[in-house]
Specification:
The protein contains 1 helix and 8 strands; from the N terminus they run αββββββββ. It is mainly beta.
Length: 179
């Protein structure tokens, strides 16, 4: 039941973002330059990360820590390759993902994608569960000053706890340097 509610919430959030983007894009091109919308370029950043779920067993409590995240924007594409490291628990989780980036405003993207989390010590707590698992991510990024980016996302680890069928959710935010 929890998985159904979480999946439904994610689908509604993504649908509303994509629907509002479609409305904005329906305006004539003369009134909106393509370069005014979205954020291009790659970046690397660091910030905080918080696990907000618990698998109900030992070594799987919600954990607070840090994150290092990066984006490699594939040129002339709305696809990016991203990587994240979540640390501060009893293990570190590395999460490579591929995302679809949707421009929503000047220097701002919303992204949705999937990947896989790799724990350095399965069975020990991280912000995204305590074992390797598939991951879905939904986030936003915006350049707030020349080459300075803020980002935030939610990562959903599917079946991310040992000896439990529970999913894990972590929230990340940070600041980065765009290059």
């Amino acid at each position: 039941m929890k998985l159904v509610k979480l999946t439904a919430s994610a689908i509604l959030a993504v649908a509303s973002i994509l629907a509002s983007t479609g409305i904005a894009e329906a305006q004539p091109i003369e009134s909106q330059s393509i370069q005014e919308k979205g954020m291009t370029g790659s970046y690397v950043g660091a910030g905080v990360s918080a696990g907000v779920t618990n698998g109900g067993q030992n070594n799987d409590a919600a954990t607070f820590g840090g994150n290092v995240q990066g984006r490699y924007a594939i040129p002339k594409s709305q696809v990016s390759i991203r990587g994240a490291a979540l640390f501060g628990g009893n293990a570190t989780t590395f999460i490579p993902t591929v995302t679809l980036d949707v421009p929503v405003a000047k220097n701002t993207n919303v992204y949705l994608g999937g990947g896989y989390s790799f724990s350095t010590n399965e069975g020990q707590a991280t912000q995204l569960g305590n074992k390797n698992s598939p991951v879905v991510t939904l986030g936003a990024e915006s350049e707030i000053a020349r080459n300075i980016v803020i980002y935030g996302d939610a990562k959903w680890g599917i079946d991310a706890y040992k000896n439990s069928s529970a999913d894990a959710v972590s929230l990340q935010t940070g600041i980065g340097y765009r290059f």
